[in-house]
Amino acid sequence: MERNVSSPLNVTIAPTQLPQLNTTGDINATVKPFSVFDGCDHQVEGILFDLTLQCINVFIGIPANLLVLAVLIRNRKEPSTSDMFLGCLAFMDFYFSTMPPLNFINLYHWQSKGVWSAIKFSYGVKDTSGPLFLSCICLDRFVAVLFPIQFGQLKHIKYRLSLSVLVLCLTFAYSAAKTVGGLPNFEKVFTGEILATFTWMVVCNLSILWALKRSRSAGKDEMHPMKRKAFKMVLSILCIIVFNYLPPVALFPFEDYYSPDVFRCYVQPVGFAFLNISSTIQPLVYLCRLEMLSFLSETCVKKCCPCVTAGNNKTPPEQKLNT
After folding, report:
1. In this structure, is the dihedral angle defined by the CA atoms of residues 84, 90, 92 and 95, taken in order, positive or negative?
2. Fewer CB within 10 Å: N-end or C-end of the chain?
3. What domains, with CATH codes, occur in the chain?
């Protein structure tokens, strides 16, 4: 789906030369010059809302994703089966979070078609990599909880490496097509993707939560430490899915009910804004789920992640070693 960016500053047009007396054809039939604002010059509120949230990605998302990558690298000797997907997701979110400054400069100063193409490519990366890699994480957890025997047979890294390469190929193919533009009904591709991945992730995570709740030992209120860890991971992913992906899922399928200008300049930017801010929310949720944040002070952890801290305080020392 094409993203459109506008600005109230681009409301003047350079004066054109007077038509020659021997000019034939319609005088008004002029070639439309390139513009990074793409028709939303007087309807900027939704776009500014999106860019404001993207600024949060710059100041919080970049260090948070770098911290996630550092944690994954530190734990590379004892990796989780989902670490490859988490690492790819964090790297893609880091890449996308570095683009807003370039976007602002291009909007108000450069107005370069080449830079705008690079920005559109980053939007395509964000549109595709986030939902697909989250779906991979959900698939990994789904098989681990509901089909543990098959999961043990599929633990080899080659399976996750192959799936990651497939996701990256789909991501770059979609991003390249988005950059080129002009493909008929191309926006329907993203709508179909987001609907499919949202449905899969919700059903998958609800199934996992139900299975984990049901697997408690008879007469015991406490869940096994490993299952409790998986439960918190799945619950956090479900929260991310609902908050970040529900708005575009709820808005984009009803494109035909909006006027083209309203959909392009208001509905799209607001829906994408919730999707874009996931570049900050996803790494923060992951870091808050960690039982030990050695990179942060204990005071900071208590303020940012009170639920995780409280859960750790209730966990006996011998159980902590097993998680």
Report:
1. negative
2. C
3. 45-290 (1.20.1070.10)
Q: How far is CA 95 from CA 53, 91, 98, 123, 280, in A?
A: 16, 6, 6, 10, 12
Q: Summarize pLDDT for 64-106 with one digit per residue, the tens.
A: 999 999 999 988 888 888 899 999 999 999 999 999 998 888 8
Q: pTM for the full model?
A: 0.77
Report whether pLDDT(216) > 50. Answer: yes
Exposure on the CB side of residue 279, measured as CA atoms within 13 A? 34
What is the residue-wise DSSP string for 200-234? HHHHHHHHHHHHHHHTSPTT--SPPHHHHHHHHHH
Question: Would you say the C-alpha torsion 238, 62, 56, 95 has a positive or negative sign?
Answer: negative
Separation of alpha carbons 103 and 304, rounded Å: 30
C-alpha span between 27 and 99 (Å, rounded): 40
Q: How far apart are CA 204 and CA 254, in angstroms?
A: 25
Cα–Cα distances in Å, from 119 out to 153, 157, 245?
41, 33, 21
- With CA atoms as reference, report the closest residue to 129 among 97, 174, 178: 174
Q: Maximum CA pair distance of the chain? A: 95
d(CA 249, CA 191): 7
| Cα torsion 108, 111, 114, 118: sign | positive
pLDDT bin (cut points 50, 70, 90) of residue 2 is low
What mean pLDDT value characterizes the chain?
A: 78
Nearest Cα neighbor of 209 from 247, 239, 165, 189 is 239
Task: Please give the structure tokens belonging to residue 2.
Answer: 């094409």
